[in-house]
Write a structure and sequence with these properties.
Layout lengths: L2 H6 L4 H4 L9 E3 L2 H5 L6 E3 L1 H5 L23 E4 L2 E4 L3 H7 L4 H20 L12 E3 L3 E5 L14 E5 L5 E2 L12 E4 L6 E2 L12 E3 L25 E3 L5 E2 L5 H9 L3 E2 L4 E3 L19 E11 L6 E6 L2 E8 L4 E8 L4 E9 L3 E9 L2 E8 L4 E7 L4 E8 L7 E9 L2 E8 L5 E7 L4 E9 L3 E9 L8 E8 L5 E6 L4 E7 L6 E9 L2 E8 L1 E9 L4 E10 L4 E6 L2 E6 L6 E7 L4 E8 L4 E9 L2 E8 L4 E10 L3
Parallel strand pairs: 6-7, 7-9, 8-10, 9-11, 11-12, 12-14, 13-15
Antiparallel strand pairs: 1-2, 3-4, 5-6, 16-43, 17-18, 18-19, 19-20, 21-22, 22-23, 23-24, 25-26, 26-27, 27-28, 29-30, 30-31, 31-32, 33-34, 34-35, 35-36, 37-38, 38-39, 39-40, 41-42, 42-43
């Protein structure tokens, strides 16, 4: 309560009412009662209270009934007595002592209020482990950072300390520090927010400790005084110059603070190098990984992705249920959910193809023939529009779609002894047989790609057929006849189950999968494919290259061990081992990009279909 507001509440009648004779008693107020605005007066013996000098009690004789001052009362205020005249003398002199009594009354109340309101906490004392002067504190053998130091201290030093870590907010209670020295200790770690609140700090020394790294943004907020030259001393530490210290290299490049030369103790390639001389480009701190995101409770063989009506969809072939399951992205739950399905028998491939704005799906089945479905937007379902001739396609194993000179095609690789790998062409109303390539060769895979025979010639369409009975065969498109012609094969590569291609900086590469023996990576040299890398493989039926943003991967599945994920090393111009994932009997790997998220779908012939999320991690963050 403010003094002014308290005085305004006083009753002026206490000073102006006529005096009366009163009993010999004293009304006194304690500190608590004064604070509560004189609510409860306490009667005590006058002789007892008259002996108290310099206390909070006022020795006032008041009328018991009307609380008026008596002209005969001696007034005791903080040890001083104002002795008013006897009533007879008072009568002769009129009310001459009334002003004095008024002054005494107000001094009593005002003194009590000021004392009550003026109480302040005691200033922090110098910690026992420190030696303090007016503005300096030196702490030796401290087991922790003192929580309080005298407020006038602007320089704080620690030597031979017993602590090895400095925790968050250790200096929140010393905001006025300008100089902080934590030198010649055994400090191993410091929290990111250790120096939070030190807005006045102009010199910080962490020299000669055992620091191997510093958390990012540890100096954030310490440069607010732009007109002050901030000085930091980090010498004599064992800094490991890895990604966790990349921020320091960046900070040293643009700070105005003065920093002494500091050196790396590791890794070996940077040992004894000045950190000040390093560049952020010296650190490769961005890594990626495939993190498990979702399990689909069914087996699968092939997985394809397509765009239709401005949305992305995934279609999965389920061999045991015979269904083509279509998935869409749930923008609320952030997961994939069922959209529709096509029911069949022992389905091995569900291949979508969008011609203009119409969606078609080629459904390849081991039994019951293969069919083509059309999406009816009015009925909101799939309708079968065509059967694929069963005499040619007896045991389909793979389907590839492609477009040449504005004409749409698809090719079915047939793996039966009596079947034909056949190309079909869209004629405006349906697909009809355009060309049969292989008869009785038991083809297991077909891959469409474009390569140039010489640097001066534009790339031309090619097909590579993989077969269990011969080496992979390369077919080239003949523009004059509008047919593929047998060009050559890939030597020394028997028993190749599948071939998939990718490009790096304009060069064309292929990944060749072998169930027994080494799988290979080969590069197109202008007239043939040349070996560049071998991958040990056992029980592999898929070696799938795929690109996610700027990252080129190749994933080698296995029926008997973990699936190996490789990442392309641009400097070495080959793949390096990157990650292992556990997929039972994988048959395909498909990249799906939705809402700036990248996923890897992994089909499984013996277990659940798995979805992995492609995660980018910054090790310097």
């Amino acid at each position: 309560m403010q003094v002014g507001s308290f005085l305004q509440q006083l009753d002026p009648s206490h000073l102006t009412a006529p005096h009366r004779s009163l009993p010999r008693a004293v009304r006194c107020w304690s500190e608590e009662q004064l604070t509560n605005q004189l609510q409860v007066p306490v009667l005590k013996s006058r002789d007892t209270e008259a002996k108290k000098k310099g206390g909070l009690l006022c020795d006032l004789v008041l009328e018991q009934d009307n609380h008026h001052l008596n002209s005969r009362s001696p007034v005791h205020v903080w040890g001083y007595f104002f002795d008013c005249m006897e009533s007879e003398r008072s009568q002769r002199m009129g009310n001459a002592c009334m002003p004095l009594k008024r002054i005494a009354y107000f001094l009593c109340l005002l003194s009590a209020l000021l004392l009550t309101e003026g109480k302040k906490p005691a200033k922090p004392k110098c910690p026992a482990v420190c030696t303090c002067t007016k503005d300096n504190a030196l702490c030796e053998n401290a087991r922790s950072i003192p929580r309080t130091v005298p407020p006038d201290v602007i320089s704080l030093s620690f030597v031979r300390s017993g602590f090895t870590e400095i925790s968050e907010g250790s200096f929140l209670f010393t905001p006025s520090l300008q100089l902080l020295f934590i030198e010649n200790n055994n400090i191993k770690s410091i929290s990111r927010h250790t120096f939070r609140g030190l807005k006045s700090l102009i010199h910080l020394s962490l020299a000669n400790n055992n620091l191997q790294t510093l958390p990012k943004d540890i100096f954030k907020g310490l440069d607010s005084l732009t007109n002050v030259l901030f000085f930091r001393d980090l010498r004599g530490n064992s800094f490991n110059c890895d990604c966790k210290l990349k921020w320091l290299v960046e900070w040293l490049g643009h700070t105005n603070a003065t920093v002494e030369d500091i050196y790396c103790e590791g890794p070996p390639e940077y040992k004894k190098r000045k950190i000040n001389s390093l560049s952020p480009k010296d650190f490769d701190c961005i890594i990626t990984e495939f993190a498990k995101s979702q399990d689909l409770p069914y087996q699968s063989l092939s997985i394809d992705v397509f765009s239709y009506m401005n949305d992305e969809y995934v279609v999965i072939a389920q061999p045991f249920t015979g269904k083509c399951i279509f998935l869409e992205w749930d923008h609320v739950e952030k997961t994939f959910r069922n959209y529709d399905n096509i029911t069949g028998t022992s389905t091995v491939v569900c291949k979508p193809i969008v011609i203009e704005t119409q969606l078609y799906v080629i459904v390849a089945q081991l039994f019951g023939g293969s069919h083509i479905y059309k999406r009816d937007s009015f009925a909101n379902k799939f309708i079968k529009i065509q059967d694929i001739e069963i005499l040619k396609i007896r045991k389909p194993n793979d389907i590839e779609t492609f477009k040449i000179e504005n004409n749409w095609y698809f090719v079915v690789a047939d793996s039966s002894k009596a079947g034909f790998t056949t190309i079909y062409k869209w004629n405006g109303n349906g697909f009809y047989s355009h060309q049969s390539l292989h008869a009785w060769y038991r083809d297991t895979d077909v891959e469409y790609l474009e390569i140039a025979r010489t640097p001066q010639i534009l790339r031309t369409p090619h097909l590579i057929l993989s077969s269990s009975s011969q080496r992979p065969v390369i077919y080239q498109w003949n523009k004059a006849t509008q047919l593929f012609i047998n060009q050559t094969d890939i030597p020394n590569m028997e028993d190749v189950y599948a071939v998939k291609h990718f490009s790096v900086k304009g060069d064309v590469y292929i990944c060749l999968t072998r169930f027994i023996g080494d799988s290979k990576v080969m590069k197109w040299g202008g007239s043939s494919f040349q070996d560049i890398q071998r991958m040990p493989s056992r029980g592999s039926m898929v070696f799938q290259p795929l690109q996610i943003n700027n990252y080129q991967y190749a994933i080698l599945g296995s029926d008997y061990s973990f699936t190996q994920v490789y990442n392309w090393d641009a400097e070495k111009a080959k793949f390096v081992k990157f990650q292992e994932i556990n997929v039972q009997a994988p048959r395909s790997f498909t990249h799906v990009s939705i809402n700036k998220r990248n996923f890897l779908f992994a089909s499984s012939f013996k277990g659940n279909t798995q979805i992995y999320k492609h995660v980018i991690v910054d090790l310097s963050a």
